[in-house]
Amino acid sequence: MSQTNNAPPAQARIADLDVPVGQGGEVQQTAGGDVPVLTTQQGIPVSDDQNSLKVGPRGPTLLEDFHFREKMFHFDHERIPERVVHARGFGAHGYFEMTESLADLSHADVFQRVGEKTPAFVRFSTVAGNKGSPDLARDVRGFAVKLYTQEGNWDIVGNNIPVFFIQDAIKFPDLIHAAKQEPDRGFPQAQTAHDNFWDFISLTPESMHMIMWIMSDRTIPRSLRFIEGFGVHTFRLVNAEGKSSFVKFHWKPKLGLQSVAWNEAVKLNGADPDFHRRDLWASIQAGDFPEWEFGVQVFDEEFAKSFDFDVLDATKLIPEELVPVRVVGRLVLDRVVDNFFAETEQVAFCTSNVVPGIDFTNDPLLQGRNFSYLDTQLKRLGGPNFTHIPINAPKVPVRNFQQDGHMAMHNPKGRVNYEPNGWGGAAGGPRQTPRGYRSFPAEEAGPKLRIRAESFADHYSQARQFFVSQTPVEQTHIGDALVFELSKVETPAIRARIVAHLRNIDETLAQTVAKGLGLKDVPEPATAARPTRQDLPQSPALSIALNGPESFKGRKLGILVTEGADAAMVAALKEAATGVGAMVEFIAPVVGGVSASDGSVIEAQQKVNGGPSVLYDAVAIVPSEAGAKLLSREATAKDFLNDAFAHAKFIAYAPAAKLLFEKCGLAGDMDEGCMALNKPVDAAAFIKACGKLRFWAREAAVHAV
Ligand code: HDD
C-alpha cells in the first residue's frame, strides 16, 4: 500500500490541528449558528477553502476547480489604477451645516437653511507620492469635499494651500511629470527634492508664490485635523434674481493650525508612515470629531477690477485682511469608512460637479480641471457608470436617458429612452425644468488666442508678501527647506536659477539660501515678466504660528514610564491632559506595561523602541530611580529625549529623569521648555504650557548648521 493512500485527507488534518486563528484566539470554524456560509461569487456554498481540487493528494490541480479559478481571477484583478496625482489619500464621512444663510448671494439649496445637515464625504491626500508613500512627505495636502445636496452633488476639490503652481491647465502634465519620480530611474518617491522638479520650477516663475507655501511648514502638517482648506479658484455665486458675485471658499480648522518640524517629519515617515490616517481614524473613533468652519470671501466685479492682481489667476490669493472671510457654516467628520476601497479609493471628485446657484469663472486652471476630473474617472473606475457606485451616487433621485455601459447598476424601466417623446406624463420619462441648473450668462467675446493675460504677469509680489508675513521661526524654516531641497539637486545651474528668483522675493532669504548651498557666486536676480515688484503689507492670516491654538486640545501627550513610576504624578498628568481634550499614550520598556509606585498597572500603548517622541506633541518622562538607570542605558530612550529636545517640544520630567538628560548631554542646556515634575500640580502647569505647542526659543540653540 502506498504512503499516499495511508495519509489522512487534508481536510481532516486542518480540522484536527484546531489552530487558533484571528486576534480573538478563535479556532478554525465551520458555518453554523451565526457563522455565515462561505460562498462563491455565484452564491454556491463552499465546502473546502483550504485546498484546491487535485488528482489525488499530490497530483496536478484540475482546471475544473471553478472555486479556485474564480477566487484567483478575482484576486488578480483587485487593483484599479491609482490616481495620477493625489494617489495617497484618506477619507471620512460627516456633515455640512450652515450657521448663517447665504440666500442673499446664492440660490444653492445647500446654503438656504441654517442648521440643516447635508451629508458630506471628505478625502485628504498628498499629491506626488504613490498610494503606498508615507504621510509626512513634504507636499501639498488635497482637501476634497463632496456635499450630497438636495440638488445633486457639489464637489469642492481644494488643497490646504490657497494658490497653485501654474496659471494654465495646459502646464499641469509638465508640472506633475517634473514633480513625480524621474522616468528613467523611478525615484525619488513622494518628494520634490530632485533635479526635475526644481528645473521645471526654476523655469516657471509663476510658481514662485506657491514655492514659498510649499517650503513653509504648511506642507508638513501635524495632522489632517489641523489644516486649512481652500477652493483656490474664484467661483461665482448666483442668487435667485440672477445676480452674480465672486467667491473664494475656505475651510478653517476649529483646532487651529499646527505643523511638525522637518526633521520630525523625516523620522515620522519611518516611525509611522500612516501617521496622518491613523490620527484621523483614531480621533473619529474616539468621538473627538474634527471640525472646520466654512467661510467665504465674497467680492464683486468692481473689487475684481480694482484689485492689484487678476482674480482669475490661481497663483494669487486675496488677503483676508482685504476681503475678510465670512464664516457661514461648518463641516464635521464623524464617521470612518466601512471599507477603504469602496469609499476612499472609489470616490470620484470632479470640479465640474456644481449645483444651481454656484458657477465657474474663466480661470484657465479651473476650466482645464473641469475636463480632467471627469476624464480621469473613466480610466480609474473603468466606465461611465462610476456615479452608480454608492459613494459617488447623489442622495437625490437620478433620472435621465443615459443607459448601458460597463457595470450599469440602475437601469430605467419602460419603453422610452429618448426625448423629446410623445408618450406624455410619467410614461414619457423625466423632463427638463426651469428650476434646473442654468449657467450664468456672462458675456464673452474676443479673438481666439494662445496667450497669457498681461494681468497674470506679477510673479513675485505675493511670494514676498507670504514670506514677510511669517514669524522669524517660520522664515527660518522656509530657508532651511529650500537649502535642504536644493542640496539634493545635483545640477548647480538649477540651484543658481532658484536663488536668482529668490532675489526677486527677499534679498535676505536669497543670501541665506545661497550661503546654505555654499554658492560661490550669487547670481543676478532673475529677469521678471513684470519688473516692478510691489511691497504688499504683511498678512497675519498667512502664518501658521499666528493662527495656532492656545490650548493642548486635540494633541497627544506621550508619557515614558518605567516600573515604579510615581503613580500620583502619572495620574495628574493624565488628568490634566485629558481635561483639556488631549490624548495620552504610555510608552514603557515592555508593551504589557509597568507596575506604578502604588502597585497599580499602567498599560502601555507603545514599547519604547516603537514609540519615539516624534509621535507626540509633548512628552513627559516619569521613571523611578531604577527605571531612570535602565532608560539611560537604552539608546531608543535616549533618542526619545534627544529628539523631543531637538524638535523644541515641551518636556516634563520627574526628578529621577535628570539622569537621562545627563546621559544625553542635555543637562547643561535645559531651558524653560523642560519642566520639572516635583508635585502633582506641576502637571497642570506643564499641560498649560503645552498649549503653545512648541518651545521655539530652543530651536536656534540646537542648530549650528
Ligand atoms: Fe487636481 C485630483 C486638487 C489642479 C487634475 N486634485 C485632485 C485631488 C485634489 C486636487 C484634492 C484629489 C481628489 C480625490 O481625493 O480624489 N488639483 C487640485 C487643486 C488644483 C488642482 C486644488 C489647483 C487649484 N488638478 C489640477 C489641474 C489638473 C488636475 C490643473 C488638470 C488639468 N487632479 C487632477 C486629476 C485628478 C486630480 C488628474 C487625479 C485623480 C482625480 O483627479 O480624481 O484629474
TrEMBL record:
EC number(s) reported in the record: 1.11.1.6
Q: Which residues form the Catalase core domain?
A: 39-427
Enzyme class, first EC level, given as a word: oxidoreductase
A molecular-function term among this protein's GO annotations: catalase activity
CDD domains on file: GATase1_catalase
Q: For this UniProt record, give its keywords in alphabetical order, as a comma-separated list.
A: Heme, Hydrogen peroxide, Iron, Metal-binding, Oxidoreductase, Peroxidase
Cofactor field: heme
This protein's source sits in the domain of life called Bacteria
Record's Pfam families?
Answer: Catalase, Catalase-rel, Catalase_C
- What reaction gets catalysed by this protein? 2 H2O2 = O2 + 2 H2O
Q: Name the protein family.
A: Belongs to the catalase family. HPII subfamily.
Q: What is known about what this protein does?
A: Decomposes hydrogen peroxide into water and oxygen; serves to protect cells from the toxic effects of hydrogen peroxide.
From the Swiss-Prot or TrEMBL record, give the protein name.
Catalase
> What organism is this sequence from?
Roseomonas haemaphysalidis
